[in-house]
Write a structure and sequence with these properties.
28% helix
């Protein structure tokens, strides 16, 4: 889908600097986990929300990115572990909260699905119609156990 700088900046600014959000503002809130110092090596962006059919709050992953130079580092697993840890902390006082992560990708989707399946429990899949021109869909979504 086409990239929107304005919308991306809106979410990132809110999640990076939540102290600027007034209490009456019902807009998105969340967390960003970062790996790297002077240069970004990896980042995960999580927000609080709820599915359209429920009032239950979920922690939804919007982004899990590892710079190509660091893809053999284990950063992706670390970022997923961070997301799970943050949800575990929230569940101490809010046991109904769950983490929701999905893979929506046109390239290397199968590898990403395998990574997530090793770290989390599968509970669905994403599908698109019509397919983008540059899509390389996975042949098998989940490993056979």
């Amino acid at each position: 889908m086409p990239y929107s700088q304005k919308k991306t900046d809106f979410y990132i600014n809110r999640l990076l600097d939540p102290k600027n959000i007034v209490a009456e503002d019902a807009g998105p809130r969340g967390l960003i986990g970062v790996i790297g110092g002077a240069r970004l090596e990896g980042v995960i962006m999580l927000s609080f929300g709820s599915p359209w059919y429920s009032d239950q709050i979920t922690v939804d992953e919007h982004l899990n990115f590892v710079d190509p130079a660091h893809r053999d580092s284990g950063h992706a697993k670390t970022l997923i572990s961070y997301a799970k840890h943050m949800v575990d902390l929230l569940r101490v006082n809010h046991p109904e909260v769950r983490l929701v992560i999905g893979v929506l990708s046109t390239k290397r989707a199968a590898a990403k699905v395998r990574l997530y399946e090793r770290q989390l429990t599968p509970a669905g899949a994403f599908f698109v119609h019509p397919p983008p021109e540059n899509i390389d869909p996975p042949r098998h979504l989940y490993r056979t156990r």
